[in-house]
Fold:
Amino acid sequence: MVFDIKKTAMALAMALVLTVPALSQKRPQQQPSAKYAAVVQGVNYEGYAFNEDFETDITVENQAGRFTLTPAEIDTVERLIKKKIAKMNHTHEHQPNKECQLIDEHLDKYKRQYIGFINEDGDKVVWVNFLRDRRFDKLLLYEIPNITGGCSNFFHVKVNIDHHYLYGLEVNDDGEVVYTKPPMKRKYRRVSKPK
Structure:
């Protein structure tokens, strides 16, 4: 009996040593939220608008620059989405059952992330990310989560607010939800040593 208690105590001590450093680590890839994102709330929508200084790998075609959205522009984006998403989503891709419901019938259940772009024609294009999974709520202010699977619980669309149209709707595939953490960003530039 004493031997088993010693083994159990050793196993618990090892587990504690291995997990405590991992729990105490901060997420170095997060950008300071107040500097790069603003909380957005309106009638039947809430989310985060990232300003033009937020670093991202997201792009739009013929991209010439970025811009920071105003509350009025976000209202315009939301009105256009509510008005036009059902027509754009007519094929109901990856929305076959109760777990993967029709996105246009449940827009108010999604958190949003907005990023503003300017294309080569000078049009303002907003990339809007929709997420309906509370496991990712704490990340949404800091990063654009790279998620595969999960069907219609995750989708994004682009909105041209100057010409009032939607395009580029992409709904996640069916399957297990997989989140890929963004790569860690270096705080300093790496300089190679001369040989």
Remarks:
- The longest strand covers residues 111-119.
- The chain has one domain: 33-180.
- Residues 64 and 120 are 5 Å apart (CA to CA).
